[in-house]
Design a protein that fits this description.
This protein is of the alpha/beta class. The chain contains 19 helices and six strands. It is globular, with a radius of gyration of 26 Å.
Length: 399
């Protein structure tokens, strides 16, 4: 009996092991993975893990599949490489993005209707094939509208009312404490090889339509990163050329480009965290001599922790992100520089002796030279006026 009692007592004293629930696996966006890879490229896996608060093992896994992460063409907010290799619904998505950005830069309304008009005007063949697969014209239009809305969401465009003067004033009030030569603004713009006028003369009737053979107005080949200072000084330009990093374009073609400027190669000719680091370390670093302000839009590569640290470490400058959807009224380059610059480029395009049959790399070179020539022609007074128009009018806030 005693033995039974002691056995039962021992059984009661035995610790009860509760089954632990497995920890939820933390997910990270593609943007965060690219940010970590950029940190590893300039430091180490351990440093990246420490600064971002992510396990070193996770960082190591990302490094192992860095090519897939870099080449992923889906949304940067996605936590996985789902849909890898899947193309955008709009094969002309890069041109569409540039159209949207240029329209907002010109302070024009951008709606789903405007996106559809762009598609109809520039990609009629694609639109005809898209509509042919739909049950009815009504369902086709509805599907296209939803596709445009999802496209906007994917690339950071949201339906918003115009930003109030007060909100812009609060953001830009910091500029009052800085001298003109301490305030910088940077922005990107797509550059097209063909820059034809918006309209063309054509005979009346259907016998002479306004169609132009071989015209590809939105064939953006590269991106120009423009930087200017509030006292009117124009900085060197960073050109982002479409191609594979480390490929023949980077190793051979870039040697032909004009000296005194900075060049980067990216798969889509877009700004990303890696290219942003190149901008701060090879361009901005040598233009900023005192603590300064850098005004820019709220693009992920600009305002991420890595992006802001790069500006601070390389150029002792403070990043001032502008409110969403407000750059057309309070970003100096958008307000009074990009428009005149594009007009100068169009004028130069008219007098160029190009056949249009040049190789793609040669077209990129021509685009860069045209952009630099237009940048040289743009007056410093025009730059100063753009800063005054964008910033100074917000110094007084209405009560």
């Amino acid at each position: 009996m005693a033995g039974c009692h002691s056995a039962c007592f021992a059984k009661e004293d035995m610790p009860v092991h509760k089954r632990e629930m497995p920890k939820a696996k933390k997910s990270y966006t593609i943007a965060k993975k690219r940010e970590a890879l950029d940190l590893v490229a300039v430091s180490s896996e351990l440093e990246a893990a420490t600064r971002l608060g992510i396990s070193r093992r996770t960082i190591r896994d990302w490094v192992a599949e860095k090519d897939k992460i870099r080449e992923f063409t889906g949304s940067e907010r996605s936590p996985t490489l789902k849909g890898q290799g899947k193309r955008e619904l709009f094969p002309f998505f890069h041109g569409l993005i540039n159209y949207m950005k240029d329209r907002r830069r010109a302070e024009k309304i951008l709606s789903t209707k405007h996106m559809i008009i762009y598609i109809k005007s520039n990609h009629a063949g694609w639109l005809a094939n898209y509509m042919a697969d739909k049950v009815s014209p009504q369902s086709g239009i509805h599907a296209l509208e939803r596709a445009c809305q999802r496209f906007c969401e994917r690339y950071g465009y949201t339906p918003q009312k115009p930003q109030s003067t007060k909100k812009n004033a609060e953001t830009l009030a910091v500029c009052v404490d800085y001298k003109l030569f301490e305030i910088f603004n940077v922005d990107e713009t797509g550059i097209d090889f063909d820059m034809p006028p918006k309209r063309s003369w054509a005979g009346r009737g259907h016998h002479d339509s306004a169609k132009v053979l071989g015209l590809n107005k939105h064939s953006t080949r590269l991106t120009a990163v423009i930087t200017a200072r509030a006292d009117g000084k124009k900085m060197p330009i960073l050109f982002i050329v479409r191609g594979k990093p480390g490929g023949s374009i980077e190793t051979k073609e870039l040697k032909k480009y004009p000296k005194g400027h900075v060049y980067a190669v990216q798969e889509n000719a877009w700004m990303d965290t890696r290219v942003w680091k190149k901008y701060t370390s090879e361009l901005l670093k040598y233009e900023v001599n005192v603590p300064s302000l850098l005004l820019l839009d709220n693009f992920e590569a600009h305002i991420s922790e890595v992006g802001q640290n790069a500006v601070l470490e390389d150029a002792i400058a403070r990043v001032v992100p502008l409110p969403p959807n407000s750059t057309s009224v309070c970003q100096p380059l958008d307000v009074g520089v990009m428009g005149p610059l594009k007009q100068l480029m169009k004028s130069l395009w008219l007098i160029e002796d190009n056949t249009g049959d040049e190789r793609a790399p040669d077209q990129c070179l021509i685009c860069s030279k045209r952009t630099l020539a237009a940048w040289e022609l743009l007056g410093e007074e025009d730059v100063k006026k753009a800063f005054v128009k964008a910033i100074h009018r917000y110094h007084t806030v209405e009560g």
